Amino acid sequence: MSLAVQRADFDRYMVPVFNPLEMILVRGEGSRLWDQQGRDYIDFGAGVAVTSLGHNHPALVKALHDQAAKVWHVSNYFTNEPALSLAKKLCAATFAEQVFYCNSGAEANEAALKLARKRGVDINPEKVEIVAFNGSFHGRTFFTVSVGGQPKYSSGMGPNPAGIIHVDFNDIEAVKRVIGPKTCAVIVEPVIGEGGIVPATPEFLQALRDLTTANDAVLIFDEIQSGNGRTGALYDYMNTSVVPDILTTAKGLGGGFPIGVMLTTAAVGNHFKPGSHGSTFGGNPLACAVSEAAFDIINDPAVLAGVRTKAARAAAALRAMGERLGCFSEIRSSGLWFGCELSGALAARAGDLVGKGAANGVLMLQAGPNVLRIATSLIISDAELDEGLRRLEKTCIELLS
């Protein structure tokens, strides 16, 4: 069979910042995907926690189809109905009073960091320092990759932006040593994602809230991955007693359609003025229409309760698998988001596990060389969940033999 495009075309035509697996996926439904050859895969990665409602969800397809027949783009010289409708719902459901739209999590964090710096400078020209955490990840723009706590992503491109301080995650005393009058913001993932699915302790988050308030700095929660139902709450801050000043999110909000959002209070957001920041495609009618449809489904108590139920089912199965096979030393989880610490003969072989898993029909992620990362659809069926776990166990057994 002659195919119009093949995996070799990636190496021929694409800038080599990715190294995808050999198959080319062409169709999806629910938590299954199919490649060009018709092989099926259980999706345990959800496009890196993006396809929150699985593939080809009818409500999202309808929203896209209906809006596509109306208007695709009007620019930010004008506004549009889907953008305003979604903004009203986001504010009604959260602490926020204002919304900024963009196209990705990196752009949402870029906006948040610029807003925090703008507010700081409005107060005091020297109030520009940003406190962030080792192991964190906040995006791929030069500002956000510098704020992220993984030097491998920001090295080799010349001087990084100044005024960024990194300390260890969950270390309250370390934060106390570096926060002060020059601090404009602390940015934190309530659950570190790329760094291994590591939840912040409640005491740590409360200390960040207390310290930022005492030093007139803003607290930014990066909920790019942890938001939109992933942890069993609409946003993970709702699982705590801590409310941030700015929350960023993206990924699962669009269910697969690109969108990024910064949520904030009016007191903070009003430090931006017309022209301070912007985005050509931010608030795009198509993106907002699809995201509103996804939001309406996710922000349903029954759906969020289902996330918690399925999460408990999957966590128990993963822990039992680890005990039977000796392959996982720890299962860290936050809703339908798992970090499986590898041990024994699988130690430091997350890449092998992902590759072999794909060959066995289950698509997974890694968070470093020693952590298998799993993020399913929020509404994955029990049958698909069980089948994916069966294929994962088969993969572990094969690699251990």
From TrEMBL:
Mind listing the GO molecular function terms for this protein? N2-acetyl-L-ornithine:2-oxoglutarate 5-aminotransferase activity; succinyldiaminopimelate transaminase activity
Query: What is the first-listed, main subcellular location in coarse terms?
Result: cytoplasm
Which Pfam families does the record cross-reference, listed alphabetically?
Aminotran_3
List locations, semicolon-separated: Cytoplasm
Instruction: Fetch the Gene3D superfamilies from UniProt.
Output: Aspartate Aminotransferase, domain 1, Type I PLP-dependent aspartate aminotransferase-like (Major domain)
Q: How is the cofactor bound?
A: Binds 1 pyridoxal phosphate per subunit.
Q: Which InterPro entries match?
A: AcOrn/SuccOrn_fam (IPR004636), Aminotrans_3 (IPR005814), Aminotrans_3_PPA_site (IPR049704), Class-III_PLP-dep_AT (IPR050103), PyrdxlP-dep_Trfase (IPR015424), PyrdxlP-dep_Trfase_major (IPR015421), PyrdxlP-dep_Trfase_small (IPR015422)
EC numbers listed for it are 2.6.1.11
Q: Where on this chain does N(2)-acetyl-L-ornithine bind? A: R140, S279
- Decide whether keyword Amino-acid biosynthesis is in the record: yes
Listed under catalytic activity are:
N(2)-acetyl-L-ornithine + 2-oxoglutarate = N-acetyl-L-glutamate 5-semialdehyde + L-glutamate
- Top-level taxon: Bacteria
The record's keywords, sorted A to Z, are: Amino-acid biosynthesis, Aminotransferase, Arginine biosynthesis, Cytoplasm, Pyridoxal phosphate, Transferase
Transmembrane helix among keywords: no
Query: Into which EC class is this enzyme placed?
Result: transferase
Q: Which cofactor does it need?
A: pyridoxal 5'-phosphate
Enumerate the residues binding pyridoxal 5'-phosphate.
Answer: G105, A106, F137, D222, E223, I224, Q225, T280
Q: What pathway annotation does it carry?
A: Amino-acid biosynthesis; L-arginine biosynthesis; N(2)-acetyl-L-ornithine from L-glutamate: step 4/4
> What family does this belong to?
Belongs to the class-III pyridoxal-phosphate-dependent aminotransferase family. ArgD subfamily.
Q: What else is known?
A: May also have succinyldiaminopimelate aminotransferase activity, thus carrying out the corresponding step in lysine biosynthesis.
Q: Relate the assembly described in the record.
A: Homodimer.
**Protein name per its UniProtKB record:** Acetylornithine aminotransferase
The organism of origin for this protein: Uliginosibacterium silvisoli
Q: Which gene encodes it?
A: argD
